[in-house]
Amino acid sequence: MDPLSEVLSLLKPRGYLSAGFDAGGEWSIEFSNQHDTIKCYAVVSGGCWLAVEGISEPARLEAGDCFVLPTGRPFRLASDMAIQPVDSKTVFPPARPGGVVRVNDGGGVFLAGSRFAVSGSHASLLLDLLPPIVHIHKESEQTALRWSVERMMEEMRESQPGGFLIAQHLAHMMLVQALRMHLSDELNGSSRWFVALADKQIGVAIKAMHANPAYRWTLQELAERAGMSRSTFALRFRETAGETPMEYLARWRMLLAADKLENSNDPIARIAIALGYESESAFSTAFKRVMGCAPRQFGQGRPPVAPPLNAANRSGQAAK
User: What number of helices (H) and strands (E) belong to the chain?
Assistant: First the structure.
């Protein structure tokens, strides 16, 4: 798989709610607890404002726009950003698939989409690879998403047999399409990993590491894949991704290992060999350095304490 598909596959997003939001008049709603949640919505009609924690300027959403909030940050939707927000818990009843929540009898803006739950002790590390907000507002990109949105709306209206499952699949399509479009866009305010992946030369090296994580990559080999000198590649990779190529490789290996530890019965020795380590001891040392605990502790449910894969302040440890 390509790197984006791999990250999403490890997150295992489950579309557990496809619904609508219809608001009118003056309103402002704060969505505070979004832990391990990805939201993907389209503006069917009308418009409103979207503000995401950590992003300096709010985004104006208009009919046809699609937005994805992949990192679980708190956010706010409002008709006017000057209005004091209320907590979403006071507005939204218990979730039900296909339901439509109305505020002030609706009529001002209608949103349709899904929210996804992600699982795993390493989910937060993976979510940090994604941009805090994806806003699809170019007409050419909206056209590619419109079919999925219209089909989802139809499934919500008609409540046909199997409609819930179809809506989930359509939501997954919207999510992947929006993230893929973001990769080819200007990437303003995106995550460093997305910027690195979109870079034509650095992206080639990242794809090579993902295609064969067990291979004993050297800096020279990765530089040759990128068509750059060794020193230029090393500098450019660190400036773009926020870490060295060997740090990236080590962390990606450990995220793959974490997924195996949580979701398979493979012994640690087999996981170590599959990821290119000559011994279980060498693998365990690398895992503890990256994930903050030993593989056996992680397999017993202890959460990782390591920084995200694209953090800028690393100690310079290399993949062994």
Answer: 12, 10
φ, ψ dihedrals at 201, nearest 5°: -90, -50
Between the CA atoms of 253, 254, 256 and 259, what dihedral angle is there, to the nearest 10 degrees? 170
> How do the residues of the chain divide into helix, strand and coil, expressed in percent and rounded to 5?
45, 20, 40
Which of 188, 166, 185 has its CA nearest to residue 177? 185
Q: With residue 205 as reference, give the H or E element that holds it.
A: helix 200-211
Kindly report, residue by residue over 186-203, the tens digit of the pLDDT: 555 567 888 899 899 999
Burial class (CB in 10 A: 0-12, 13-18, 19+), 111: buried
Q: What is the mean pLDDT of residues 116-134?
A: 79
Distance CA 77, CA 39 (A): 13
Question: Which one, of 129, 138, 211, 241, lies nearest residue 181 by Cα?
Answer: 138
Which of 89-98, 166-175, 189-198 has the weakest average pLDDT?
89-98
The CA–CA distances, whole Å, from 68 to 71, 120, 129, 164 equal 9, 21, 14, 20
The candidate with the shortest Cα–Cα distance to 299, out of 239, 258, 271, 244, is: 258
Q: For residues 241-269, b (16+ Cβ closer than 10 Å) or e, as one string?
A: bbbbbbbbbbbbbbbbbbbbbeeeeeebe
- In the numeric block, the tokens 């795993």 are attached to 120
So what's the pLDDT on residue 187?
58
Terminus-to-terminus CA distance in the chain, angstroms?
Answer: 24
pLDDT of residue 312: 39
Model confidence at 20: pLDDT above 90: no
pTM of the model: 0.75
Between CA 102 and CA 13 the distance in angstroms is 27
